[in-house]
Amino acid sequence: MIYYEDKNITIRTMKESDIDYFTNAFLSLNWGDRKETLLQYFNEQNLKQREVLVADHNGTPAGYITLVDNAKSGPFSGMNIPEIKDFNVLPSFRRMGIGNLLMETIESIAKTNNTQICLGVGLYTSYGTAQRMYVKRGYIPDGSGLWYDGKNLAPYDNCVNDDELHLYLIKQL
Question: How many domains in the chain?
Fold first, then answer.
């Protein structure tokens, strides 16, 4: 399904061929092998358990975003609030508005049945651009503090600043 299209960018549902494309792109960037995760997303999309949108720039996959109907972990777990679970725009396609188009489209989908949307954002430098974009788009911290590996961190708890360390944000739609 196509959700958005202009002369350069198309936002559409994930195709099976996107799995190998993004896997190879991530490997070339030393971001690790994501093939199993992407295959899981594709299967969940087919089972209507996850929305997976891909942005094409002039026919080349440039990024993707996923949405689940109900947060399964973190402060919004079990509250029937949709959660953005994975969002990537490949570096060579950044600063073109693709990320904002993906966010706008996924928020529009979430808004059809919900009044809120949430996400967890990483805290190290590579997440800086995303952190700024979320704030500019109206996402605010939920006030629950930091979460590590799906658990709320108590004061003075030890953690590692890796992909499992999150600050959760919420937005009214």
Answer: 1
